[in-house]
Fold DUF3243 domain-containing protein.
Amino acid sequence: MSVLENWDTWKNFLGDRLHHAQNQGMDNEIVSEFAYKIGDYLANQVEAKTEQEKILADLWSVASKDEQHAIANMMVKLVQNNGSQK
């Protein structure tokens, strides 16, 4: 099963990657930019598999670039307490 097929699995996957990046010393601006790029890629290249992903894709499609950055930042905040390295 792909991490994209289950919302909680996806959040835990992102949480693990976020904690790894932070443990390696990546600052918040870089994390934010990566989150934006990942969100843009997913919205444009990957079919949403869960209702949550469909909502995010719909929001992303109507958002301005600044709003997309805000969505990406909110996703970072959302997954900060997820993953195995809480």
Summary: Residues 3-79 form a domain with the Cytochrome Bc1 Complex; Chain D, domain 2 fold (CATH 1.10.760). Helices lie at 7-23, 28-45, 51-62, 65-79. Residues 28-45 form the longest helix (18 residues). The two ends are 23 Å apart (CA to CA).
